[in-house]
Amino acid sequence: MSKITIIIGAAVLLAGGYYLGKSGQQPATVIKLDSEPKAAFTSSGAEEVASASASVVRSLVTPSSGELIVVRDGESIQDAVAAASPGAVIKVMPGTYKETVYIDKDNITLSGVIEQGRYPVLEGEGLRNDAVLYSGNGVTVENLYITHYKGNGVMGQAGNNFIIRNNYIVDTGVYGIFPQLGKNGIVSHNIVSGIEDAAIYVGMSDNVDVVFNQVFDSVAGIEIENSRHSLVESNFVYNNTGGILAFITPGLPIKSCGDVLIRNNFVVDNNHENFAIPGSLVSNIPAGTGVLVMACDDVVIEGNIITGNNSVGITFTDFSLAGNAANDPDSEPNPNRPKILNNIMQDNGKDPAPAVRAVLAAMLETTGPDIVDTVGMDDGCILNPERFRTIGLGKYTECEFSTTANVASYTLPEPVPARSMEDVDKGKLAYYGVCAGCHAYSSRMIGPPTQIIQALYMDNPEGIAEYAANPVKKREDYPSMPPQSHLDDETRLAAAKFMLKVTK
Ligand code: HEC
User: Within its chain, how far is the Cα of 248 from the centroid?
Assistant: First the structure.
């Protein structure tokens, strides 16, 4: 165990001030290290005016114990987490940290200290799977530079009331920032690039704001998947294969997607070649996709600047795009009640991807539209349709409202309780929160469909648990599965049993 500095109580205020002062620049966040709850946004106030009329302050307040732990270059962040009690703030000084950090305690703030632009770097060396995994509630992860991991930059596994902000995530595997099965969270001011699947992936979650992020050079920029009540606002999303996506992946345990507000984003030149893992859902996204809404309901698109996306500016569609992902009898495939308010759309559709070109050719078109609805929904609305080149919007009416300015945030004012282990079967929680990040029931995600695993393992949950702890490479056309050794034996076995039981 390396040396760790633990400072408790009154000294904390001083120490905090010292580091803040020494950094030479005002860090983005000032955390009050007294016994008061920490305020999520106390510094610039930028988040408080996310929407022109925002009168509601977006903040999450989680309890802080007043304990401060400082990790220096050469020490281990995981050791600090192990030594921390719930509510601690762990400050990580600039340096290089070659490790995976698991946070299973509540109200931990993992906060990088940036000095003259020098970040604490979590370096995966192309060997490690994940940089930060948290399952605690009230976890904050901020000010880290994360690079060269194979799996996730920051992944939440059923943690609620989370804040992930001000991180740099570069060339880091499959998912950059991936809160899975979380409720009430903020993902803001992150810079994420070079991700094989989704740079920011809100999966099976509720009440999450994704705001002020810069996301580029990835397959999917921002993905809101099987989630409800999400605000995607003021992000700069460029040079991905697809910019902003709201959709249902068929075969995940949570079946619905809806109430997603995509507002005031720049969605520009998302024409990157698709470099997703072949066969994965996102490998079907045509290059040149600005905004894509697949099967997700009540999506409102307002105030965005959507330009230079070579296939289509905005697409509303059902599962037809999901290709081999087929279907889920429990997920309704239509993108119900789409609403398109005022957006600027320019120069989209100039050079459609082959799949889109083929569809257009059948309609004697060569350029992609600003907006397409491939289903032809009859419950949608659009403002000023004459300004845009559209296909399939014949049944849309004029919207009855022209602004969503009354909505400032989808986060909830009070922290929500943790998902209680007593209420939820441990195996179900682990399967939903961890395995379902890569395994859907009937469709291929990162890993093979659960159905196939069930056929292979029948009544051998021990075999699954054993494989999950020490996976070996089996399939040529899939990546390797990362070991799930961060779960204890009992949880792994419970997840395995649940995996054999699920039926959809
Ligand atoms: C980060 C993605 C990811 C996560 C998370 C994940 N898996 Fe996998 N899993 C894979 C991939 C990829 C494969 C295919 C590996 C191969 O064929 O070499 C796989 C394959 C498997 C297999 C098939 C083994 C065989 O004999 O063919 C089992 C069983 C399995 N996973 C169980 C689990 C369980 C249980 C969990 C949760 C505790 C889990 N996985 C979490 C990606 C993942």
Answer: 14
